[in-house]
Specification:
The structure is a single chain. This protein has about 300 residues and is of the alpha/beta class. The chain contains eleven helices and twelve strands. The chain has helices at about 20-30, 40-45, 50-60, 85-90, 110-120, 140-150, 160-175, 190-195, 235-245, 255-270, 275-295, and strands spanning about 5-10, 35-40, 65-70, 85, 95-100, 105-110, 130-135, 155-160, 180-185, 200, 225-230, 250. The strands form two sheets. The chain has a six-stranded mixed sheet, sandwiched between helices. A six-stranded parallel sheet has the order 9-8-7-10-11-12, sandwiched between helices.
Length: about 300
């Protein structure tokens, strides 16, 4: 029988604004669970990404039930785990760690299913013969698997580290068949986008700590669909610019919710309500947007 009290957390860098704690805790509250979700920000703790194993061991020692893992630790955490789910092993990236009885740390990846569910819901009629993806890191591996699973004919992978794009392409071709994935240098992006049906963005660019556009705005055209992985902020510069260019756009909110749905299930053994969690996310994101848009009230000169 599942327990009724849980301690979980999130390891990553720059995760202070993450909505995951509130999203998990709201769903747990509706299910009558005691559920504490804590942020373990490596920058604030003074831990290098390569030191993720120290945090993992400490969390296990103090009684955490599980951890979510985000940038830049999704691949670095693997060597510190006792076991990987088949999907995490195929991806070479982990975003969810469950501490099982006996202390075994088992790595999973809910980014794949999270992105696939979000894409099917938000861009159900998108053409997918030729897809360009920016980013071949931990999140990139997950969404590339999801895109090919959803039926993409070919995915062109563009990454600032060409060897990383080449390694991911080789892994995808072994799994899905030769020719399904192709690495490309950043200077070839324009040529590939000219022939593409859509673009998937899977780099940190656009996050609150990494503002900006991941590609020149002039490369966007109305016939392209654009799928964003970043959800903080929900309207990244890419999302905003793509909408202005007339593209069909999928923001990162759906992926954030659906990967959390799967992680909640792994942590608790209970079935979350995905529709309810989508509503929770909309409420949280809307409240945050309103807060940012509200002008500060000037202090009274008397200090009242």
């Amino acid at each position: 029988m599942p327990q009724d009290s849980y301690l979980v957390g999130l390891i990553g860098e720059g995760i202070g604004p993450s909505l995951s704690p509130a999203l998990h805790e709201r769903e747990a509250d509706r299910q009558g669970l005691r559920y504490l979700y804590r942020r373990l920000d490596i920058a604030e703790l003074g831990v290098r990404p390569e030191g993720v194993g120290e945090l993992l061991r400490a969390a296990r020692a103090v009684g955490f039930d599980g951890l979510n893992v985000t940038h830049p630790c999704k691949q670095l955490v693997i060597e510190h785990l006792d076991e990987l789910s088949p999907q995490a092993a195929a991806l070479g990236a982990v975003n969810t760690v469950v501490f099982e009885e006996g202390g075994r740390a088992v790595g999973h990846n809910t980014d794949v299913t999270g992105f696939a569910a979000s894409f099917a819901r938000g861009l159900p009629d998108a053409r997918m013969e030729r897809v360009v993806q920016l980013g071949a890191g931990g999140a990139g591996a997950a969404v590339a698997h999801a895109v090919l699973t959803l039926g993409a004919g070919r995915v062109v992978l563009v990454d600032a580290l060409p060897e990383r794009a080449a390694a991911l392409a080789a892994s995808l071709n072994r799994h899905f068949g030769e020719g399904r994935a192709l690495p490309a240098a950043p200077d070839a992006l324009a040529a590939h986008l000219a022939e593409a049906d859509g673009i998937v963005h899977a780099t940190p660019t656009g996050m609150a700590a990494h503002p900006g556009l991941p590609l020149p705005a002039e490369l966007l055209r109305p016939a392209l669909w654009v799928a964003e992985v970043v959800y903080r902020p929900l309207e990244t510069e890419l999302v905003r610019t793509a909408r202005r260019a007339g593209c069909d756009v999928l923001d990162g909110g759906g992926m954030a919710v659906f990967q959390a749905v799967d992680a909640f299930r792994l942590f608790t053994g209970r079935e979350p309500d995905a529709s309810r969690m989508l509503t929770h996310f909309a409420d949280l994101a809307g409240a945050e947007t309103a807060l940012r848009a509200t002008p500060a009230i000037p202090s009274s000169p008397c200090g009242d």
